[in-house]
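JOB MANIFEST
job_type = single_chain_structure
chain_count = 1
residues = 144
[input]
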Amino acid sequence: MGQRGPVPNRSEDLARPRERKGGDGQVVSKGTRLPAKAPNADRTWHPIAQKLWDGVKESGQTDFYQQSDWAILYSLCDDLSHFKKSAKRSSQMAQTIYSALGNLLVTEGDRRRVRIELDEPVEEQASAAVLAIADYKAELGVDE
């Protein structure tokens, strides 16, 4: 059975090995991150479940998703759809779904808790050499 408490940092994110901190120096088993492809959403889902699926699919945290994460998200969206379509809704079911979505780092608060921050995309800028050549060509009247 796994440990309880907060999820530990990845070994490469630690400032120094745990055994140097006086902790229990447990060995970390490593694997390779494989490319993952999101399946298509179910067209019969409730509109809110479809929006959630589309929103997560276009979000930056999915850079870290593996096929199993997509499968869990698919299942949660399916559960959310059934929950939203139901005439009688259980508050326990809602809590369970939202808690599981938190484990997939769906909201910014969830990501901050595990120290993942998504930055704004960096605009590509032309190098100084390319700009200088373009200026020289403009001064000389040379068309490209």
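[summary]
Residues 52 and 58 are 10 Å apart (CA to CA).
Residues 35-117 form one domain.
exit_status = 0
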